[in-house]
Amino acid sequence: MKRSPLSPAHVAALALQRLAAMADSERARQVQRYFKETVRSFGVGSPQVRELARELYGTVRGSWTVADAISLCDRLLQRPELEAKSVGTLVLLRFHKDFPRRLFATIRGWLARDRLDNWASVDVFCPQALATLLTRFPELLTAIEGWARDRNRWVRRASIVAFLKLVKLQECLGPAYAMAARHFDSKDDLVQKAAGWLLREAGKRDMERLEKFLLQHGPTIPRTTLRYAIERFPEGKRKRLLALTREKAD
Predict the structure, then answer these.
(1) How far apart are CA 136 and CA 157, in angstroms?
(2) First-to-last C-alpha distance (Å) of the chain
(3) How far apart are the C-alpha atoms of 61 and 72, rounded to whole Å?
(4) pLDDT for 147-169, tens place per residue?
(5) I need a labelling partner for 219 at 20 to 30 A (CA). Which of 29, 107, 182, 205 fits?
(6) Is residue 39 a contact partner of residue 31, using CB atoms and an 8 Å limit?
(7) What angle do CA 218, 219, 221 make, to 5 degrees?
(8) pLDDT of residue 4
């Protein structure tokens, strides 16, 4: 493989230069409306960010290894801006066929150190990246169970969204439901919403199984999680499930 003259450091610098050139301060202020935590932004739209990631990948395709892409991602995740994090993760996702097992621990480290420190950054990267690793290395399905009790909220959210694509596989439905249930005692609304999102996606494959699961766990399910989970049911069934799963008064 011919080495690219562009190192991860050079590509990271180029990405930041391009993002700064497209920066829109008014749009950057508006971005904050979508987050409870404070975020930094260049104010660059998602289509432009994805196009930039595609272009940068094109400059190194065929010459970079996955290790180079991981190095680029690590550099850009250290930046506070949402778009820099997105470019790094989107370029790395282009190398998904070559993901090594060790990337699993690297991703957890990024999350635990708040390199992916908002729901958008977690949700752009983790569903595809972790699904790829969990599929390629099935023993990691057991390893990720421990993420559900991590002190870091982003590790916990990632443990849930990791299964969003995997629920299409019959063998992963059980682990997905189990992961959602591990978070039923969470008081974190971003974790509760993610668990409901996962259950809703699982229900696309088997609505009857989802209904039975919700009735089985009943009042242990946070109401936020439940409302997300039942969005695809007809209105009448949604009201019935809300009533049947409500915590009983003493």
Answers:
(1) 21
(2) 69
(3) 14
(4) 999 999 999 999 999 999 999 99
(5) 205
(6) yes
(7) 80
(8) 55
